[in-house]
Amino acid sequence: MIYSHQDSWTLEGIVQSVPLLGWWYDHVVRNILGSMLTSAGGFLHTANQTTGYLQYRAEEVQKLSNDIIEKSSSDIQQRSREMTLRAQNLVDQAKTTVEKRVATAREEVDRMRQMMRPGGGGVGGYQTFTKAITGAESRS
């Protein structure tokens, strides 16, 4: 004796029980869904690989950029040092030249002062100085 009977049906079971719909589900729908899922999995796999490759290349580009910046920076610093040394040498040369000319001018001024002193610096003192400057003797 059977007191109760329960059946549980799934949507797939119901579709397969209908003759034309079952064949269409088995041969068309399942193949299309399988192909779509496989394609989606392949797409995700390819996207994941591409993302990894792009990330690797981005890190490589970043490293190369940092190397270029560092090299350029050291080149600029080296050139700056060289130019600073050249400028310092020019300033030192100019300073030496000016010091020599000032010393020469002082000697010339001292020599002229001695020539202008009465009785000091040669025959005739003032007359010798005048002759040295004008090229003619003064008559006083």
Automatic annotation (TrEMBL):
Superkingdom to which the source organism belongs: Eukaryota
Protein name: Uncharacterized protein
Record organism: Linnemannia elongata AG-77
